[in-house]
Specification:
This protein is mostly helical and about 280 residues long. It has 13 helices and two strands, in the order ααααααααααααββα.
Length: about 280
């Protein structure tokens, strides 16, 4: 861990309210999400093909997660709620975690990993609207399946993200999909590429399709990549290595991201990371 990151962590933790409880934070979030899914499942009757809607809705959610991460969480939009999302993510989360050290060690640090409860509430409202439209256009079962998939996607997102920031252990290293997204997300926390590369937090499907992954391999290889770094794009390796040093971070990293030099911009362009 660089001195810059260590200082930010210390200052951030000092500002966490003494009333904050990480277990309550995630307990309420999981209880609300699982209860909503359970309620919907209990109201589904005689569904058959409607369950297949999970696939397109989940894929759409994967691309929505990618777009939200790239164009809101890493791009300052000076509107109240969107600015707050950017502040919390780029100016806080990405200062607290880098690829030098992306782990938490206390329950208090859940504050910097999990979204606030209001995100789940907003998703529930949006998901409820889309579910209502599906129930009108198709049938009630379709509406419930749409809502279940959207809430379930959020639960998976939060769980996978949490796994990305836990200390290394054998389970995280060897469980398929979890190990893939853990490597994928920790690589995203490199200060040099964080604004442009590896935007997915569930499965790296959209990153593969939009060419914003740090890997050069096919879709199946992306999904089951695990910790393998043999496919990291050659053009990104010098940028990644440069921004792991304290000297570069001190000289060229700000709360709003890195100040990239011309050769680094060209490397990201060749890698597809500067996709507009």
């Amino acid at each position: 861990m660089t001195e810059r990151q260590r200082n930010f962590r210390r200052q951030y933790v000092e500002q966490i309210s003494p009333w904050y409880n990480g277990l309550v934070h995630i307990g309420v979030m999981y209880a609300a999400g699982i209860s909503a899914i359970w309620w919907c499942v209990g109201r589904i009757h005689g569904a058959t093909w409607e369950w297949l809607l999970i696939v397109p809705v989940a894929i759409a959610g994967n691309f929505a997660e990618w777009a939200m991460h790239k164009y809101v969480m890493h791009r300052l939009i000076d509107v109240f709620a969107l600015r707050a999302i950017y502040d919390r993510h780029t100016r806080q989360h990405h200062q607290y975690f880098t690829d030098n050290d992306a782990t938490i060690h206390t329950v208090q640090e859940f504050r910097i990993v999990f979204f606030p409860w209001r995100v789940l509430m907003v998703l529930a409202v949006g998901g409820g609207l889309l579910a209502w439209i599906a129930s009108i256009v198709i049938d009630a079962n379709a509406g419930y399946v749409v809502f279940i998939t959207m809430i379930g996607h959020y639960m998976v997102y939060e769980t996978f993200h949490f796994c990305c920031h836990l200390p290394e252990n054998a389970w995280l290293r060897h469980v398929p999909l979890v190990n893939t997204i853990r490597r994928h997300h920790v690589a995203h926390h490199n200060m040099g590429i964080m604004m442009h590369v590896n935007m997915n937090l569930t499965l790296p499907i959209a990153d593969w399709a939009m060419k914003t992954s740090d890997l050069k391999r096919g879709l199946v290889g992306h999904v089951f990549n695990g910790y393998d770094e043999s496919h990291v794009k050659d053009e990104l390796k010098p940028v990644i290595a440069r921004f792991r040093t304290g000297e570069t971070q001190d000289a060229r990293c700000t709360l709003d991201g890195p100040k990239l030099e011309a050769d680094e911009v060209r490397a990201l362009e060749r890698a597809g990371g500067l996709l507009a």
